[in-house]
Write a structure and sequence with these properties.
229 residues; mainly beta; Jelly Rolls; 9-stranded antiparallel sheet; 16 strands; 0% helix; DUF1080 domain-containing protein; AL/BT2_dom
Length: 229
């Protein structure tokens, strides 16, 4: 099924740090040429206005497929680490449960990075864990970000991302059809955890969101295949 109609942001909910749910501050999220564009043309400075746009329905067992690309220049005031940096968040907490000034939802982040310097590796579809931990090779990992083994992608080329989510048992990231990282058993906990009362709880379901972190990025052809039987 298509999660994005290519025309408007119907069925999506926006939460930007410092602003109430539903306030698309400075029109950060727009539809341009049949893509969801993270746009900063109305910003003077970024001001740590981290944002996320959530699809309205939570999912648990599925395969997500989309294309993304970085465009333009980072807005003034963005963090140096956020240059050509965005993400697709899975197993997110409900947007209604986020605090007004919360940076990131408790979630698993499929971190998207664009290449910076020719010849210098910068992988994409990495794993980051805002408010979560995962296991890899049967070992609990508490490192916030772990690199995938993907290629590096420069410029404004479109990159195809797929994420296969099997409840809390196995999650795999694919870039242009190649598996680049795999892990299992996500739980709530660690840095950025706003759901302290749920510390240690398994993440078996959640929302899907797209991130704004200060560099313009576009997302298109967003499809979801349910794997429920």
């Amino acid at each position: 099924m298509s999660l994005f109609n290519g025309i408007d942001l119907d069925n999506w909910k926006i939460k930007i740090k410092g602003h109430p749910l539903g306030d698309n501050w400075n029109q950060t999220f727009r539809v341009v040429d049949s893509a969801i564009r993270v746009d900063y043309s109305s910003y003077e400075k970024f001001g740590n206005s981290f944002g996320h746009i959530f699809y309205e329905t939570p999912y648990s067992n599925y395969r997500l497929k989309l294309k993304y690309r970085f465009i333009g220049e980072q807005v003034e005031g963005g963090e140096s680490w956020a240059l050509r940096n965005s993400g697709v968040m899975i197993h997110c907490q409900a947007p209604e449960s986020m605090d007004l000034n919360q940076d990131f939802p408790v979630s698993i982040e499929v971190q998207l990075l664009g290449g910076l310097d020719k010849g210098k590796k910068r992988s994409t579809a990495n794993l980051c864990t805002p408010g979560t931990h995962v296991c890899m090779n049967k070992e609990l990992l508490t490192t916030h970000c772990i690199d995938s083994n993907s290629d590096t992608f420069y410029g404004d080329q479109w990159v195809e991302l797929e994420v296969e989510v099997r409840h809390d048992s196995l999650i795999s990231h694919y870039v242009n059809g190649k598996k680049v990282i795999e892990y299992e058993h996500p739980v709530i906990g660690g840095e950025y955890n706003s759901l302290t009362e749920l510390e240690g709880k398994r993440l078996t379901t959640g929302y899907i969101s797209l991130q704004s972190e200060s560099h313009p990025v576009e997302f298109k052809n967003i499809f979801l295949l349910s794997l429920n039987k």
